[in-house]
Amino acid sequence: MIEDQLPERPQRVESLSHAQRERLAYVEFRLYFMGEIGRPDLANRFGIAPAGATRDLALYREIAPQNIEFDGSNKVYRIGKVFRPIFQHSPQRVLSALSLGFGDGVNGETKPLLPCESPAPLSNPQMEVLAPICRAIHANRPVAIRYHSMSSGESDRVIVPFALVDTGLRWHVRAFDRKSGTFRDFVITRIEAPTLLDEEPKPNERQDNDIQWTRIVELDFVPHPRLSRPEIIQMDYGMTDGSIRMRVRAAVAGYMLLRWSVDASPDHSLKEEQYRLWLSDPLALYGVENAKLAPGYRLPVMQTKK
Question: Residues 12-30, buried b or exposed e (16+ Cβ, 10 A)?
């Protein structure tokens, strides 16, 4: 994925404690995206005394004087006329903070920083299921579960989980399944009664034996050929040289193409409005087990020698 370049931070910042850097990054966030910050904003966010907030604001002003100006009449600090961030602000984290607010799980509720509407998630894992699954991943332990499958119904299984996967529609856990003897995806909302087992995974159950997980496929997306203004799609996705090149795990490739509505047909035959991107090399999905999830994907026709 395309990532922002890390800003060059003044050496002074690197010498600060982690807590100080967190507070200064918040100062910069408020300036950058809200245009201003007051002493109460900083004090309330981190639970520090007003005097501590004053020191942090003065420190940020000392390190990046061009980024911040004091408005004495309103007693707030405003973004400087020549602003250049000294911290990296990930788009995902920024949009999450703006739409959901900042929270640490203690106060329970957070409020968005700006008016924001987004689709409500329809599938959320239950915490009493997600938590032990996460502990099993962290401790590298098998876990006994009761699982509800669309194809085989309810069954008791022992799985060896090693990663969570967000498909955009629901959360999975990638794991070795002792019942089938294969690596599989398990939908977390279909798991009941997870119980960690006090034993080590067997060598063949470890993630480095999951071929679909360890295999990396390179995908090249271009504006869909049916569109008359490809340059707008290039702007939408921040394309370089007219395409987006991504490297993803084979185990998640099909989910990603479905999530992004990428036409994976060899002849870009999907004409519906939601398909703004085309996978220019569908053969990149050869051998990807979940390629069938990709919109329009068709198995390649093998040529036979005469």
Answer: ebeeeeeeeeebbbbbbbb
CA–CA dist 160, 196 (Å, integer): 10
Q: At what angle do helices 39-46 and 50-63 cross, to 10 degrees?
A: 110
Residues 121-162: pLDDT tens digits? 888 999 999 999 999 999 999 999 999 999 889 999 999 999
Q: CA 125 to CA 182: how far, in whole Å?
A: 24
| Per-residue tokens: 164 | 């969570």
Contact 251, 212 (CB under 8 A): yes
Q: Write a three-state SS string for 251-269.
A: HHHHHHHHHCCEECCCCCC
Tens of pLDDT, residue by residue over 208-253, are 999 999 999 999 999 999 999 999 999 999 998 999 999 999 999 9
CA–CA separation, 134 vs 76, rounded Å? 42
Q: Check if the beta carbon of residue 158 is closer than 8 Å to that of residue 175.
A: no
pLDDT at 262: 97
Q: Which amino acid is at 50?
A: P
Query: What sign results for the dihedral spanned by CA atoms 168, 174, 177, 183?
Result: positive
Residue with tokens 């026709």: 301
> Distance between CA 201 and CA 147 in Å, rounded?
20
